[in-house]
Amino acid sequence: MGRTVAPAVLLAFSVACTQPVLETRTTASRAILPDSLGYEVRPAQDPNGIGKYYQGRQIAHVMGHEGAGWLERADRGQEEGTDILLRELRLKPTDVVADLGAGTGYFTFRISPLVPRGKVLAVDIQPEMLEALRQTKARTNAANVQPVLGTVQSPNLPAKSVDLVLIVDAYHEFDHPREIMQAVRTALRPGGRVALVEYRAEDPNVAIKRIHKMSVAQARKEMEAVGLEYVQTIESLPQQHLLIFRKK
């Protein structure tokens, strides 16, 4: 696997996401009117955000590769209902799946055996994450896994090449969400789907900072803004929404 992450670093990343109640806020200046793409730039209301807003939502800071161990924590499967999520995706053996914001490949290598005649495109913008992913690919002989280095504005996926794009707890950190999702829409085959997984903002019992959560209404607003059609919300996961969108 990739580099070992010190316990203190893991704790820092855990705390960064999971302090739910006392969120420090700075005093915001008068908001700048959104531009034609839905963006605003103004002082951060929450110090865990970058001071950039999309469709009224403040974008969160990206978790760096130093927190890779947090993605592979032993209790993640139980906490997030990983097996339930994989079942709800209803994958076909021939599907081409893009794991967008793949990180170390936690979901990539669980999807790989479910699409034996397809492939998994593991997309991340951090070379260190992809290096850890490559090491796991070599160790597990996952021949249908293909690491892809994306950018903050594009996942670098070919047009009409993907059946499903899975985004787990990453979309709220994209600092160019509109451009990324426009590129995702282009990469989807006709009828292709986006599976967006985010912690439920509507549920105060989900012990995650608000900036790391999304509501169904906000998610729909942002996906529909780039021409993705809402299909359904699946609420079988312990703490997260699973929202399905489709290319029209």
Give structural attributes:
alpha/beta, 11 strands, 8 helices, 8-stranded mixed sheet, 248 residues, disordered N terminus, 3-stranded antiparallel sheet, 27% helix
Structural class of the helices, strands and pairings? alpha/beta
User: Which outline best applies?
Assistant: globular
- Helix and strand string, N-terminal first? HEEEHHHEHEHEEHEEHEE
Q: How can the largest sheet be summarized?
A: 8 strands, mixed
Rounded to an integer in angstroms, the radius of gyration calculated over CA atoms is 17 Å
Indicate the proportion of strand residues. 25-35%
In which range does the helix fraction lie? 25-40%
Number of strands: 11
Kindly report how far apart the N and C termini lie.
39 Å
* Low-confidence region ranges: 1-16, 18-32
Determine the number of helices (DSSP H or I, runs of at least 4 residues). 8
Give the overall average pLDDT: 86
